Amino acid sequence: MILDLTTAALMLPAIPFLMLAFGTRFTVVSELIRKIHDEYASDIDVDVDDVRAKRMLAEISTLKKRLLMIQINQTLASLSFLVNLLTIFALYMGGQYLSKLLFGFVLGLLMLAIILFIIEIGIATKSLNLHLSDLDTND
Predict the structure, then answer these.
(1) Distance CA 124, CA 137 (A)
(2) Which of 57, 102, 111, 137 could form a disulfide with 87 if both were Cys (CB 3.0 to 4.6 A apart)?
(3) SS3 content of the chain, % helix, strand, coil (to 5)
(4) Handedness of CA 39, 43, 48, 51 (dihedral sign)
(5) Beta strands of the chain (E only): which ranges?
(6) Measured in whole angstroms, how far is the alpha carbon of residue 115 from the centre of its chain?
(7) Mean per-residue pLDDT for 116-136?
(8) Nearest by Cα to 89 from 8, 2, 17
(9) Rounded to whole angstroms, how far apart are CA atoms 90 and 84?
């Protein structure tokens, strides 16, 4: 297989969109953390055994996990963008073998980012179910 500039350049617009999606998720999660923090701080005199307090602490725990996952996703997407640029540079310099190795690395980084994105969606779903647990009438 011969890798050319067009193939590597096709990744350029995709990676920033991925980074934008992760950035948006980061913003939403940080807003949720601030909101829950403010609610919890205003009810600080509430008994720790209170069901609401336990739910809020559990939500904060899942939001911390999500925040870490999003941070890793953003790092992976940023690294894939950088390595993709190195791929294009290697192609420009005529290094076909190096560019193939770098492009494979780009694809690996993106696959890891997407796998972690799927895991983070699962964590987000569990967090939302936890948040809605007090409305569950099946108890």
Answers:
(1) 22
(2) 102
(3) 85, 0, 15
(4) negative
(5) none
(6) 10
(7) 77
(8) 8
(9) 10
